[in-house]
Here is the input.
Amino acid sequence: MRRMALDEKKSSVSVTSTRAARRHRRLAPKFAVCIKNSEYPASLELHKIYRVVSDGEAMRQGDLRVVDESGEDYLYPAAWFVPLGLPSRVRGSLLRRRRA
Here is the structure.
């Protein structure tokens, strides 16, 4: 039996593991904008973008671990922030700015 020409072609499709993609997404820095700071105006600026540190336990409790104005990470209510999806160029710029 002769194979069809389509069967003989090699695929050019590249497959990436979803596990690796999920791991990369988890490790990528996350950011959020502050929408409420009434109890901590010295630590948080309204409408400023903050880096979020992954903390599963804090998230289960309704909190977010955020690097605030002091440069240290602290827990704040998650409702005070809106997560941001940023292009990689913007993320890179924010990370460089924070180190300087």
User: Anything to note?
Assistant: Residues 88-99 form the longest helix (12 residues).
